[in-house]
């Protein structure tokens, strides 16, 4: 029986020990002494375990073979032609166009038949107890030392398209923009309806610590996403970088001078982004999601939250008669530098590029 090293596992060091994570079975094993040498020997080509005595440095007392047998049991080594071998081959062929960490995360975050599931009541009880020891993180970032620009109150005026079906049919990604500045009222209306907290409906999970409700859904009512504005051509607002504070309905001036060239570069050198009146950068405060969902699958939900929120922003911009396009093509480090994010606790997710319509009077 020939063996090979699994192509669906990761080796890493933790607490001064070598570990192997099998992301298909979602199991972590501590590798015993001598495992690294055996793995390297099998990486040179498929071999039979009976040939282990030929391995340079193989112990005469049979301990090296016992290491190999243990690696076989842990699925670090797998039999060539086995069902596991066939499955790994199919997976690697299907995912070959993306790098290995992508498929590793996908399969390690799957919910399988063996994944333990707890009831909603038990989960609520656990979170209530957890909140006493480890309180839920703040639901909104605030920058108390920043100058605040109060945004206009949202009124019934200014909505060029109010019918939902009409707005859905009009929604398009448009990468060309007019030269007219966008009004501060439009910016305020868009941000307020996209990001401000909304009252909970009866029977919802409002009793859980840290629960927030917006016009877009979010897994577990965590709403980990923050909105930042790079303002270039907004009437009555100085160009610059701002953070939107939903509780105060204001823009917090972060005092981070940013040129159009820097903004374009951060958007992966997409020249069309330079014609926008403003760019909304979305970040994710991962602690909010982690507090309720400690398993890695919640990272998938973070991106779903972004999709929900960005579509709401699309529809609001369309309703105000603005042109908009979402882009995920960003240089993370450049955006982190512009916004002042650390990239660890608050991560870059995407951006909505917004401007006045091209070739018509704005506002109409």
From TrEMBL:
Ranges of residues in domain Nitroreductase: 169-355
Matches recorded under SUPFAM superfamilies: FMN-dependent nitroreductase-like
Signal peptide start-end: none
Highest taxon of the lineage: Bacteria
Pfam families assigned: Nitroreductase
Gene Ontology molecular-function annotations: oxidoreductase activity
Protein name (record): Nitroreductase domain-containing protein
């Amino acid at each position: 029986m020939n063996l090979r090293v699994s192509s669906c596992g990761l080796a890493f060091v933790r607490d001064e020990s070598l570990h192997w994570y099998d992301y298909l079975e979602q199991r972590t094993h501590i590798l015993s002494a001598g495992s690294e040498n055996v793995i390297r020997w099998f990486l040179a080509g498929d071999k039979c375990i009976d040939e282990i005595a030929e391995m340079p440095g193989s112990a005469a007392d049979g301990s090296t073979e016992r290491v190999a047998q243990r690696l076989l049991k842990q699925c670090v080594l797998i039999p060539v032609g086995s069902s596991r071998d066939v499955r790994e081959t199919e997976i690697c062929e299907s995912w070959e166009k993306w790098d290995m960490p992508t498929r590793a995360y996908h399969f390690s975050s799957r919910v399988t038949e063996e994944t333990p599931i707890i009831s909603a009541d038990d989960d609520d009880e656990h979170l209530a107890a957890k909140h006493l020891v480890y309180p839920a993180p703040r639901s909104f970032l605030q920058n108390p030392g920043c100058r605040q620009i109060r945004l206009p109150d949202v009124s019934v005026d200014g909505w060029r398209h109010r019918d939902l079906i009409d707005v859905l049919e009009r929604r398009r990604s448009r990468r060309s923009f007019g030269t007219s500045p966008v009004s501060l009222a439009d910016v305020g209306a868009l941000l307020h309806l996209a990001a401000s907290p909304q009252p909970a409906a009866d029977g919802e999970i409002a009793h859980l610590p840290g629960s927030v409700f917006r016009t877009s859904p979010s897994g577990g009512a965590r709403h980990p996403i923050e909105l930042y504005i790079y303002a270039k051509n907004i009437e009555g607002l100085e160009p610059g970088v701002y953070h939107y504070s939903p509780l105060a309905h204001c823009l917090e001036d972060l005092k981070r001078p940013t040129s159009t060239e820097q903004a374009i570069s951060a958007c992966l050198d997409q020249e069309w982004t330079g014609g926008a009146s403003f760019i909304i950068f979305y970040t994710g405060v991962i602690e909010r999601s982690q507090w309720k969902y400690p398993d890695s699958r919640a990272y998938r939900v973070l991106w779903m939250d972004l999709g929900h929120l960005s579509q709401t922003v699309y529809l609001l911009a369309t309703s105000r008669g603005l042109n908009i396009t979402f882009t995920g093509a960003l240089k993370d480090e450049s955006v982190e530098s512009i916004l002042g994010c650390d990239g660890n606790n608050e991560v870059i997710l995407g951006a909505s590029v917004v401007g006045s319509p091209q070739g018509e009077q704005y506002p109409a």
